[in-house]
Amino acid sequence: MRSFRFGFSLASHRTSAALAETVRTAESYGYDSAVTVDHLGPNRSSPFLALLAAAHAGQRLRLGTYVLNCGFWNPSILAREVATLSRMTEGRVELGVGSGVVKSEFDGAGIPFEPFRQRMDRLEATLDELDRLFAQETDLVRPPLLLGGTSDRLLRMAAERADTVSFSGWVQVPGSPVGTLGIIPAEQADERLEFFRSVAGDRLPEIERNVFVLDVRVTDDRWAEAEAMAAEEPFLTPEQALETPFVLIGTVEEIAEQILRHRERYGFTSFTVQRPAMEAFGPAIELVRKAENAALLTAAAPA
Predict the structure, then answer these.
(1) Residue ranges of the domains in the chain?
(2) How does pLDDT run across 278-287, given as a tens digit for each residue?
(3) CA pair distance 7, 22, nearest whole angstrom
(4) How many C-beta atoms surround the C-beta of residue 247 within 10 A?
(5) 5-300 classified as CATH 3.20.20.30
(6) Rounded CA gap, 158 and 148, in Å?
(7) Longest dimension (CA), the chain
(8) What pLDDT digit, counting tens, does each position of 106-158 carry?
(9) I want to staple 199 with a disulfide (CB 3.0 to 4.6 A). Which of 49, 159, 178, 255 is the partner?
């Protein structure tokens, strides 16, 4: 079974000093990667410039896009940006790409928000073109590829060509306006993981499974916090808030136990948290790694 990897999103920083402090803090907790999102609008950061700044702030973290919105990018320009970042960071780049789901950002940029099928067609064509363009590079190969989503088509695509598949906890709420999203409960995550296993076939052991953690709440009273979350998130009951892999609630020790259970249940070995939860989640990393090492020692001990 794969070892755990932990990442966090950089979000937007106002100064390079603030970003550097975030990177140093993350490295002290034992995070493995820093990732950037790809959104448009006020107070948003360039994903590639932020990753380059993070690369100079720390020498250990992997650097990923989580995920690029291919509707915003011409493939040739995107290939140039990815190649440049890879050269400037000694190959620490991981390329995450998605189809885009936030209609208001397309509208604000004057970019047509195509129906889902066309957006997925564009994603697949972008990946094909990136493969072609990176094949022409004399000193680089395309970085490891992450694809994120939960639709059948995306999961089939990830099963065929991704190094990492990322399961997002958001889903469009049926019968609601486009962009109305709810958190996926555990039973739906079970179904999506089972579908992915079925389509991945022999490639399943080769593909890292990542989960995008939407909320981390460190508390001594899990139930009270779950009730509070259910009041804010109308598509989850308190019981579902405690069970879904997209939310972590409890003491640091309880959160570490949840991570270990999610690996057993879903095969998740890669966890990415949002920037506001980076410090809260950080202490759980050491506990998870200690438990993982203890399990390895037990497995290696003679009978």
Answers:
(1) 5-300
(2) 999 999 999 9
(3) 13
(4) 25
(5) yes
(6) 8
(7) 66
(8) 999 999 999 999 999 999 999 999 999 999 999 999 999 999 988 999 999 99
(9) 159
